[in-house]
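Data availability (excerpt). The following record was deposited with the supplementary files.
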Amino acid sequence: MPHSVSTAALAALLLLPAAIAPESPSDDGSTTEEPTAQPGSVVTGDVLYFQDVKEFEPRLWDDGSEHGGIARLATVLDQQRTELGDPLVAFGGELAGGSVFGSFYRGMPFVEAFNELGVDVGNLGNHDFDYGEAHARELMDAADFPWISASFVDVDGALVSPDGATHVDRSGELAVGFLALGGEIDRTVAAGSVLERPQVEAAREAVADLQAEEVDVVVLLSQISRDDTEVVMEQVPEIDLALREENDAQSPAEIHTTDDGRYMVAPEADYGTVIHARLSVDRATGEVAVDPEVITVDEGVDEDPRWGAESDRYYAELDERLADRLGEATRRLDVAELGVIVADSYREYFGADIGWQNGGGIRAELPAGTITRRAANSVLPFGNGVVHIETTGAALRTALEQGIESNPEGGNGFPRTAGLTFEFDPDAPFGRRVTSMTDDSGEPIEADATYTVAISQFLANGGDGVDAFLDATMLSDGALVDIDAFGAYLENHGAIPVEDGSGAPGPDPDPLLGYFLTNGWDGGRADHAFMFGRHSDQVLVGDWDGDGIDTISVRRGAETYLNNAPRGGAAEAVVRYGRAGDEVLVGDWDGDGVDTLGVRRGATYHLRNTLSDGPADAALNYGRPGDVVLVGDWDGDGVDTIAVRRGAEYLLSNRMTDGWADTVVIYGRSADEVLAGDWDGDGTDSLTVRRRNAFFVNNLLGGGPAQLVMSYGRAGDAVIVGDWDGDGTDTVGVRRMPAPAAG
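Predicted structure:
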């Protein structure tokens, strides 16, 4: 097999004339001539390498510099092909996650781009499995280039890549053999169905395959750490060059050599650099030389116009689809706080005792203010699965110990929990760090008791070294995507952080999907259960025909589909009013007993008194654009008016005109979900707050304790209010959405 030498050594050797070739002593003291290079025996070739692609547009680093970008990469590859002639282009892996773009498009735009840009070979990184094994296989099927890995196998031991562990290609006359390694599959939702082979063993087998094909040079594509790559290079000396992953998220490219002089080269993250490796082989002596250089992909590179336009197209689509408002952050939230909130969203979605999120899975902070879908995706960019399991208190303690061990400072598998409070001593030895564990009510977690846990699939499968849940009972079918649970939580609560409420979980409505309406305040089973509309519809409640009974209607864009009975089926009428992006309100604005629509734009309200298209019958300004709006009959005169909420303070107006509030009420906590309704049938609406699935009802427009506390439904249900039976008293209903399909 050829062996590597430095470029300078090879050059010196080739410059020695044959007549004065170096001599070496033989066993009898005489000298023998060393073999010399024959004319034409040196062949050369080139490899271009990049990896870690998260965005089509350049990534902005903390120092303000731009790195990568598909349009600039296209320019660099074109320039290098013009200069070099026939380089091989290798992609080092990681294209499916790690950013909002990645979590939304899940890698497919890059596969399609690499097909057109002429990538010759790819490596699988662990983040290429961020959306599961099935999705990774879809990406591989869509690729026109071989996508290889010697590391990843299925449960039967077969390679996951249909293209195998190696690939041989030619740059000019040079035969280059590629093998590929990846790691940390336990950090993805594919853990369990995709396994990871020992790196050295996998590399040795792959190199043997390449030797059988008599390649000139062996190149390792490595999506494992610098230290692990160096171990592989030491144990497998037949590898001539390692092209590996970046050192850290914003670290510069690095050219490093092993003790015997072979190169290990790391580009920047975010494909901010392309590595060019000039490879030379003297076939007469078997010696390989490597000459690496770093090519920057930054502001100094002109963008390819076609790929610039393609990038713009993707981001225009992304901006439109991610601009939806999901909720509000009442203050700046760091990753530690968000970890607990995300855990609570899992718990609420499944109605579990405990929610559990690994600290390393939270990737961004949130500033105070509006939370859009884009911002939420930046917090959870990987699209990890969430599952519902049942486990013991003893397993919970072990899992806490393991999570803390993985990163006591809060990253990696460090536990961020909801419904479980724990204390630990970071200086204590493993197994004795956790000093206390209690539930929401302050009761200790018992070792032999069972608890339900909503947890990331990554951790449930043993990720981050947390293997305490591997024997847990699975309660859910498939996996919910984490961003879907978080998004539903934001939409349900409106504002975060949410303070936990009191009250034990009450009886659930019938175990179906759809609407579950109760006519009483006893927490019993639903009196009406049905489905209507689509799960993506906005729900509106009102008395649309003046019969005293509130019913469900749904809105799509600017159209509202009216239903005058608590049942499913076709809509009885369709009303178009306002614009698709308006905030829609429902109320009896003129006291005629029929509810109609209003729209809010900023702090301006446009109210219509008939269920038809046309101009507003009344318009007024009230409150601030950022206020939360409530509608109710606050003085019992039969006309609904506006109130705005700021924290736990409510400013009520009894007039359909601009001006000051008529009444100011303080009730509940600023993080409560608030509902308005006539709870006692006296003709005046008042406030109720909801904490998880507990409702705290107040029949007076004032502070003080609740007159009634009821538990109903599940914490993850969306709540609606109406008079479902026409008795003059408002009660609650819940809307239950399905969990997304597995995968």
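Summary of structural features: The chain has a mean pLDDT of 86.
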